[in-house]
DNA sequence: AAGTTACTAGAACGAGCGCTCTATTCAGCG
DNA sequence: CGCTGAATAGAGCGCTCGTTCTAGTAACTT
């Protein structure tokens, strides 16, 4: 996280690798041994740093991924004054990242969240927290642009949901178009508030 | 499928159970033995009807689930003349189903699609087909309401994506609100086309 | 009635899972 | 130097996975 980044510690490597693998393969589809292998750590090290086992690793990984996405969101929203343009920029940014990863690196928490829905595991909670945080960031931006509290909240919920869904659609169809379309339409929707 | 429904055959039971389990637990998280058990079939029967193994079962199940959702979509859209009201009714309908299932029965293909993204398995293809089919249904409705071809397509893509994402958000937060909000905002968005 | 096909039934296999356990290495410190 | 605790290393446990295989049963054909 520091600009003058030291070589990541074993613990950090485990978290980073776990985040990427869960993002791509889901929670169930990712094995502890695979995480250890790709992080150049051994099984012993993983259980040393995360006595809680696989679930504890996943919680740390998802928390990290959630924060990372928050930063991306904040940076992109800060880059544009007009809220319509800002939200559309987010969609474009997501589309870029998706294409560059070969349509593999989508939303970091969706896959894990869906797999653990029935259970009331800690993973569920972390995913819910991440989603709430992202909504809050968008709502904050809208409020700063003159939206009422209620409008900001409802539109922010819609924006996060739409981006989430458009990203999945984009991944499945291997095309930027769903995200581009969502960006344009969300911009149009937000425009109906600012120009009214 | 018939109104005078005969007791479902073994093959039908396998497909129905597999569809529900994959919807709730994902592809990786659902075992062939679990499917056989809950469908009151034996392993031998499963492999008799689906020599292709687990993937073949999943393909059949996802195809069925995709069609079932298509019917729900068509019925709900047919129930309202105004396109805004029609799309909002879809969101309400999804919210109802979600709540009634204890926030467990979400989109039938999202989970499986996300898990198999890297691989170019047949499952991917079925999910992509389902999504395209749903978009087509929404686009058809919009075109029937006077939308141009291009507008209809772009808005339909956005609608399906937004509903998809809102459903995931609703599941994670165990609340109808994300879907309700998405429904209201999508209606507002569509209104900007019909009243222009 | 005999033969053939469609279906049911479940034991068994190798592989991989999450996790535990013991052994070893290594840095810091009195 | 010897002690100590953190970190590394990986063999092995019990279990479940998807799949295969061999039998047994039911139903239709001729």
From TrEMBL, chains A, B:
Gene3D superfamilies per the UniProt record, alphabetical: Tetracycline Repressor, domain 2
The keyword DNA-binding appears for this protein: yes
Keyword terms, alphabetized: DNA-binding, Transcription, Transcription regulation
GO molecular function terms listed in the Swiss-Prot or TrEMBL record: DNA binding
Pfam families documented for this protein: TetR_C_13_2 (PF21993), TetR_N (PF00440)
Listed PROSITE patterns: HTH_TETR_2
Stretches assigned to the HTH tetR-type domain: 8-68
DNA-binding region, residue intervals: 31-50
Superkingdom field: Bacteria
InterPro entries listed in its UniProt record: Homeodomain-like_sf, HTH_TetR, Tet_transcr_reg_TetR-rel_C_sf, YxaF_TetR_C
Protein name as it appears in the record: TetR family transcriptional regulator
Protein species of origin: Streptomyces typhae
Phylogenetic placement of the source organism: Bacteria, Bacillati, Actinomycetota, Actinomycetes, Kitasatosporales
């Amino acid at each position: 996280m520091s600009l003058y980044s030291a070589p990541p510690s074993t613990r950090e490597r485990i978290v980073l690798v776990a985040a990427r693998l869960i993002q791509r393969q889901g929670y169930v589809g990712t094995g502890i041994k695979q995480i250890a292998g790709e992080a150049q750590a051994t099984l012993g090290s993983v259980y040393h740093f995360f006595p809680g086992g696989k679930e504890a690793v996943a919680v740390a990984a998802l928390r990290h991924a959630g924060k990372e996405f928050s930063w991306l969101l904040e940076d992109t929203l800060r880059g544009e004054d007009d809220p319509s343009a800002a939200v559309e920029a987010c969609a474009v940014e997501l589309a870029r990242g998706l294409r560059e990863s070969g349509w593999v690196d989508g939303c970091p928490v969706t896959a894990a969240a869906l797999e653990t829905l029935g259970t009331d595991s800690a993973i569920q909670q972390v995913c819910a927290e991440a989603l709430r945080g992202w909504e809050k960031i968008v709502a904050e931006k809208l409020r700063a642009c003159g939206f009422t509290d209620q409008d900001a909240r409802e539109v922010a919920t819609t924006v996060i949901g739409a981006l989430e869904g458009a990203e999945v659609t984009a991944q499945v169809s291997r095309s930027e178009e769903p995200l581009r379309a969502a960006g344009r339409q969300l911009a149009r929707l937000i425009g109906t508030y600012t120009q009214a």
